[in-house]
């Protein structure tokens, strides 16, 4: 209840047509806002994993996990506590770099943040950074001074720290299935 | 050996124990309809005047028969005409399998004639949707659809089958399988123990029972638990009939138009056992202030209902019938004589003046020995029926409680009458609602369904007008319905019994004649336009806004 914070949801789904729209529509029709959503297949090609970051109260995050659990193709849903999860986001930033002085400045920033330059042209540089959201934001604020031409980010992906995994939550799935099948 | 894939559809229906389907044919379901034709008497098809009515009828059939309803429609407009019916079934957790045709594979996505993305449209109002693009998947999808519709919290599913699938010839014979049903889930023992601990401490326990109790067939178990706990029972609109109306333990309906007793007890109880309810805004307008002095135990089959709207101090995710039986066994008998006496006094409180509809509804109950199935539309007549009809059995009321779909009543009555051939089905409606789907009189006439429709005709859109009286200073924007038709002339045109009643005396005679006429009938009853549904708890403090009128 109470305060609004960011919550990370990890969702295993069956890899079938329409799953993404089912999940995203669930958020919109229940009035929940997605901050980011990243999806890709897992080691099992029939199963995809989504990482969804959503802003809201604790109770809201709980409710959205339960609602997600009711969707047919959803296998399991867990809420990753920020402190117990490692998260990364990939970001590509194209910045203005007309002079060698500017290019040097940008490379210095890139090195400090352990990012990579993946493209360089006469007037621009493209930088790749894979980091936690906080680190991305910090680097972005420095790059802004040089002028950002365009920016693209994948959204956060996250896993639990330690050896436990989303597959340990099958019990959860059995409970959800009461309302499902 | 090759069979047409459409045959898989009908064979699966038969395998699932379906003997009646509702629907309306069209070009993309021609093969399915051909197979229905070939099924002959094994599969009865009820043809309605409109797909929406077929959807409501399948819903009404499911509610009364306890079996999944089945409704078939063609692509495009046929499919979208189902939407209100699907949503109504979804909101009231009624198991209905909707089957639509869609255009052939090579025409999908080309904005072809009568093409629509119905699985996309129906996604938020079904438990699941299936788009079938290959005949091989058809048996699996059909079987899964039935299991999903009936399992857990029941609800509608939609199977959209391309016409290029249904007309395809596939190898082999159809091999029937046993229908799969998901077993009902019992409560965990630790949850039962926690409940017992809470119940031991409570001195003012109250039970709030909703539609989930009826769906689970748990009404008797619920009343048994109530007696054991010494807890009065109030119900939601969807829960009417769980306890007999004249049982002293029954405090009546809770919520916006509920009883004074239910409202008071909800405010005073120290333990609230809510079973199969979802705390909608009509029940709990301010979720934070609901049952403010109570520790709330929420029992529901759908985990997502827990703490969706109202907090729960303890919850049990389980089938209501199993959970209630477990609780009955585990709990010692409890006695709260003062609390029960207090409840009894509240219950005895007489109401202020009644609307004219009350006497009509009570007369319906008298002439049908309180035993008829009552279908309603939506509006004042619906709430008056809920308030004044002495429901004595669970499932006796068939109404669009959650979705509030006007036009539901007559269609649902058709489905109910087909499910319960030997029972009386009375359809109570208003003039506004009735006009929406009155074309279904043709269906009652064609199939010889003796549904008696009682129109509480006030010449206005009563419920909306009531809000305009109370909150909009009597500015009656578009709520005057003084435009006919002459309902008894309309009834005659459809070939059903036609009656008019200007007062109660005329109604008594007309109703008795209608019951005896051996076919469907319509009674047009004139009632005053200013009668209100009272109480109407509304506003910041949820006071009865009708009390000053």
TL;DR of this structure?
Chain A is of the alpha+beta class and 181 residues long. Chain A has five helices and eight strands, in the order βαββαββαββαβα. In chain A, the strands form two sheets. A four-stranded antiparallel beta sheet of chain A has the order 2-3-1-4. In chain A, strands 6-7-5-8 form a four-stranded antiparallel beta sheet.
Please give a structural write-up:
The complex is a heterodimer of chains A (181) and B (549). With 181 residues, chain A is an alpha+beta fold. Chain A has two domains: 5-82 and 162-180, ACT domain (Alpha-Beta Plaits), CATH 3.30.70.260; 86-157, ACT-like. Chain A, domain 2 (Alpha-Beta Plaits). Chain A has helices at 19-29, 58-70, 100-112, 133-144, 170-180; strands spanning 5-14, 34-41, 47-56, 74-80, 85-96, 116-120, 124-131, 148-160. In chain A, strand 6 and strand 7 (124-131) form a beta hairpin. The longest helix of chain A has 13 residues, at 58-70. Chain A is elongated, with a radius of gyration of 19 Å. The mean pLDDT of chain A is 89. The mean pLDDT of chain B is 96. Chain B is globular and about 75 Å long. In chain B, helix 1 (5-15) packs parallel to helix 7 and helix 15 (356-367) runs parallel beside helix 22 (504-516). In chain B, helix 2 links the parallel strand 2 (20-23) and strand 3. Chain B is α/β, with parallel strands linked by helices. In chain B, the strands form five sheets. In chain B, strands 3-2-4-5-7-6 form a six-stranded parallel β-sheet, sandwiched between helices. The A-B interface holds A 17-18, 21-22, 25-26, 29, 59, 62-63, 66-67, 69-70, 72, 175-181 and B 119-120, 123-124, 127-128, 131, 144, 147-148, 151-153, 182, 185, 301-304, 306-308, 317-318.
């Amino acid at each position: 209840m109470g305060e609004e914070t960011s919550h990370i949801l990890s969702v295993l789904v069956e890899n079938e047509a329409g799953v993404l729209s089912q999940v995203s529509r669930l958020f919109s029709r229940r009035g929940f806002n997605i901050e980011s959503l990243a999806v890709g297949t897992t080691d099992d090609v029939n199963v995809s994993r989504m990482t969804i970051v959503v802003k809201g109260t604790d109770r809201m995050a709980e409710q959205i996990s339960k609602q997600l659990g009711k969707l047919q193709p959803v296998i399991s849903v867990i809420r990753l506590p920020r402190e117990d999860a490692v998260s990364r986001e990939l970001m590509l930033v194209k910045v203005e770099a007309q002079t060698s002085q500017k290019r040097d400045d940008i490379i210095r920033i890139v090195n400090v943040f352990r990012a990579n330059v993946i493209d360089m042209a006469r007037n621009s540089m493209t930088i790749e950074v894979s980091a936690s959201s906080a680190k991305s934001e910090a680097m972005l604020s420095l790059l802004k001074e040089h002028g950002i031409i365009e920016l693209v980010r994948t959204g956060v992906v996250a896993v639990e720290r330690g050896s436990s995994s989303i597959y340990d939550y099958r019990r959860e799935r059995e409970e959800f299935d009461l309302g499902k099948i | 050996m090759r069979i047409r894939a459409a045959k898989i559809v009908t064979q699966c229906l038969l395998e699932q124990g379906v003997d009646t389907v509702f629907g309306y044919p069209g070009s993309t379901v021609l093969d399915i309809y051909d197979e229905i034709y070939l099924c002959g008497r094994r599969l009865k098809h009820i043809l309605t005047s409109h797909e929406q009515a077929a959807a409501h009828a399948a819903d009404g059939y499911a509610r009364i028969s306890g079996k999944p309803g089945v409704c078939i429609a063609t692509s495009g407009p046929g499919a979208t005409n189902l939407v209100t019916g699907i949503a109504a079934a979804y909101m009231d957790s009624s198991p209905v399998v909707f089957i639509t045709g869609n255009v052939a594979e090579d025409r999908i996505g080309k904005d072809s004639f009568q093409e629509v993305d119905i699985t996309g449209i129906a996604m938020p109002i079904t438990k699941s949707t299936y788009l079938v693009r290959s005949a091989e998947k058809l048996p699996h999808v059909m079987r899964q659809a039935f299991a999903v519709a009936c399992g857990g919290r029941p609800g509608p599913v939609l199977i959209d089958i391309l016409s290029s699938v249904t007309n395809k010839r596939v190898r082999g014979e159809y091999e029937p399988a046993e229908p799969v049903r998901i077993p009902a889930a019992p409560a965990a023992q630790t949850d039962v123990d926690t409940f017992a601990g809470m119940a031991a401490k409570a001195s003012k326990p109250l039970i709030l029972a909703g539609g989930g109790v009826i769906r689970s067939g748990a009404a008797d178990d619920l009343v048994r638990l109530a007696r054991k706990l010494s807890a009065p029972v109030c119900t939601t609109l969807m829960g009417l009939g769980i306890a007999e109306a004249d049982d002293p333990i029954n405090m009546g309906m809770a919520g916006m138009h509920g009883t004074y007793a239910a409202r008071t007890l909800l405010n005073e109880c120290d333990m609230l056992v809510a079973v199969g309810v979802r705390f909608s805004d009509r029940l709990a307008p301010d979720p934070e202030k609901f049952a403010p002095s109570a520790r709330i135990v929420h029992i529901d089959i759908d985990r997502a209902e827990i703490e969706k709207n109202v907090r729960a101090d303890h919850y049990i995710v389980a089938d209501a019938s199993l959970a209630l039986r477990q609780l009955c066994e585990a709990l010692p008998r409890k006695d709260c004589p003062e609390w029960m006496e207090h409840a009894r006094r509240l219950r005895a409180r007489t109401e202020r003046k009644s609307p004219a509809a009350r006497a009509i509804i009570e007369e319906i109950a008298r002439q049908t020995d309180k035993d008829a199935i009552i279908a309603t539309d939506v509006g004042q007549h619906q709430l008056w029926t809920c308030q004044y009809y002495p429901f004595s059995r669970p499932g006796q009321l068939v109404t669009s409680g959650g979705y509030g779909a006007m036009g539901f009543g007559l269609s649902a009555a058709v489905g109910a009458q087909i499910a319960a051939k030997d029972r009386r089905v009375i359809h109570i409606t208003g003039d506004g609602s009735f006009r929406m789907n009155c074309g279904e009189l043709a269906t009652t006439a064609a199939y010889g369904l003796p549904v008696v429709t009682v129109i509480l005709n006030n010449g206005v859109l009563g419920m909306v007008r009531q809000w305009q009286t109370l909150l909009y200073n009597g500015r009656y924007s578009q709520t005057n319905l003084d435009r006919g038709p002459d309902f008894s002339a309309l009834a005659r045109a459809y070939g059903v019994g036609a009656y008019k009643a200007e007062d109660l005396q005329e109604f008594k005679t007309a109703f008795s004649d209608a019951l005896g006429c051996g076919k469907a009938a319509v009674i047009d009853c004139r009632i005053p336009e200013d009668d209100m549904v009272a109480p109407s708890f509304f506003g910041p403090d949820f006071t009865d806004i009708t009390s000053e009128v």
